[in-house]
Structures are given as structure tokens and as C-alpha cells.
Design goal:
The chain is an alpha+beta fold. The chain contains three helices and twelve strands; from the N terminus they run E-H-E-E-H-E-H-E-E-E-E-E-E-E-E.
């Protein structure tokens, strides 16, 4: 269901700071329970912070994999260096922001995900519905592979916001 994918990223703090800045600048905390910021786009001729965010419109892995180009203004940054460090192709990378006291509906995705928790606490948990399992991913620089093709949800039971960098990977 989930496993450690990569150990501690050496420049983790720089990635956290850059993602916090992007969340502050482009996030929509006031109107949405969760907000997403696109790290990758399908057209790298200009920044599009909403490219591929939200629910999949095409509902196919091919649609998700079309978001494979880094936002132009992120080239050479801490986020770019982290994605290169992963040493696997990633797609539709997004900063996922979750407000306090909320959860997603139970759903399945079309591809597994990599999670790099950026800002979290022990009251933020990932829940598999079938088979039933719950776990917490600490914000300590580790990247976790999660089989989100299984029914799952996420809940933030705390009074603090949570940030994760989430990326799609092929098997």
C-alpha cells in the first residue's frame, strides 16, 4: 500500500521554503478546502499554476502523464533539483494544500503517487478504505510511494494547514 521510496533529501528545507512561498503566492486557501499548485505543466512556454490541478477531466493515465514539463520559472530551483534527485520520471507534480479540520472523499487514482510531506503534524493521516489502514507521513525529507489506485482518503484533523508535494509515477 505504501513504502519509503527515497531517504532524506539533503536540501529538504529549501524545497519546503520554496513550496511555502508558492502556496502563499498562488494558493487559494479562502475558498477551497484544498488547493493545488501545478509544479509541472503540459505547455512550458509560460507558467500556468493551475495546469492539471483538480480532478482529472479525461480520467486516464495518459492525461495525467501529459503534465511532464516543469513550470519555466522553476527551472534550476530547489524544487527542480529535488525532482531530478528522485531519478525517476514524475508527472503532474503539484503542491497539495489542505486546510485544517477536513478530509477528502474516498476515491481511487489512476496511478501511484509519490508524497514529500512539507508541513504536517500527527493529526494529518492517510487512510486506506479497503483494506483498512491508516498512517502518518512526517515532514522529515523522506519521499513515500503510495498505491493510490486503492480506495483512500486523507484527513487533516488538526488546527493547522498541511502541505505535501505530490507526484504521479508509473509502476
Amino acid at each position: 500500500m505504501y513504502k519509503e521510496f527515497k531517504l532524506y533529501y539533503p536540501d529538504f528545507d529549501a524545497v519546503v521554503e520554496q513550496c511555502k512561498q508558492l502556496a502563499e503566492q498562488y494558493g487559494n486557501w479562502e475558498f477551497n478546502y484544498d488547493s493545488q499548485i501545478a509544479i509541472q505543466t503540459d505547455d512550458d512556454s509560460q507558467d500556468n499554476w493551475l495546469a492539471g490541478t483538480g480532478k482529472s477531466t479525461a480520467k486516464t493515465p495518459e492525461w495525467e502523464h501529459s503534465f511532464n514539463k516543469l513550470q519555466p520559472s522553476l527551472k534550476g530551483t530547489a524544487i527542480d533539483k529535488y525532482l531530478q534527485w528522485l531519478d525517476v520520471p514524475v508527472y503532474r507534480a503539484r503542491i497539495m494544500m489542505a486546510k485544517e479540520k477536513g478530509c477528502y472523499s474516498i476515491h481511487r487514482d489512476y496511478s501511484p503517487r509519490l508524497h514529500l510531506p512539507l508541513v504536517t503534524n500527527k493529526q494529518c493521516n492517510f487512510l486506506f478504505a479497503d483494506p483498512l489502514a491508516m498512517f502518518h507521513m512526517p515532514a522529515d525529507g523522506r519521499t513515500t510511494w503510495v498505491d493510490t489506485r486503492l480506495p483512500h482518503t486523507f484527513m487533516n484533523g488538526s488546527t493547522e494547514k498541511r502541505l505535501h508535494l505530490v507526484m504521479i509515477v508509473k509502476e
